[in-house]
């Protein structure tokens, strides 16, 4: 990380700490680091500190550390896109084989909310909807989970535009299973478990025959095609329990999900 970035990081950390009325010891206690480490960060002398320490301090201040890796111009973007494409390809082929209708990169614009759903899948026989977020690298966890929640809330309306009429909705996060991603998940384990509880066998059974309600669980596989070339050895999938919608006339206790 360039020296100026470290200096700017330290100045920002000091400003945010002062804004909260904290002393360095207060920030250290909340972040779970030493007071001397906080002092080094604020002076821009954190080159030998771990990224985990910087991330803890940023989290404690309600901020996030943003470290960018640059390589051969757009070459890195193409490499990351290849890893992402491998994950999407695996998800699509798996779901199609299990009888799901699948759409990729589904864009939406609803009341000022714009974005794109990586994979949107519908099971016609069970009227189950999957809103899937695919990441080859782990971004800001809180923002990612919030974005997934927003897409799942809008998912039923987007599905209806395609002629899909779901009665239950599940949100799924697919991550490349790398050391960095596992470390990031472990650092935010409580938050991830609260939103995306895990349980591989149950969700595998549910996706094969998605009878509502789905269990709170997740997937694990180890054979993503092209993974070795793209640096993605395995895939972990974690899913939140889908919410059955309020009843409708003519339905026995289930209907299209409302906004949630």
Taking the alpha carbons of the first and last residues, their distance comes to 41 Å
Low-confidence sequence ranges: 220-235, 244-260
Order of helices and strands: HHHHHEEEHEHHHEHE
Biggest sheet, spatial arrangement of strands: 1-2-3-4-6-5
Largest sheet: 6 strands, mixed
Extended strand count? 6
Average the pLDDT over all residues and give the rounded result. 77
**How many helical stretches?**
10
Kindly name the structural category: alpha+beta
Shape: elongated
Give an overview in words.
This protein is α+β, with helices and mostly antiparallel strands. It has 2 domains: 3-60, 434 Repressor (Amino-terminal Domain); 75-244. 45% of the residues lie in helices and 20% in strands. It has helices at residues 3-20, 24-31, 35-42, 51-60, 75-97, 141-161, 179-187, 189-195, 200-208, 227-230; strands at 101-110, 113-123, 128-135, 168-176, 217-221, 235-244. The chain is elongated, with a radius of gyration of 21 Å. The two termini are 41 Å apart.
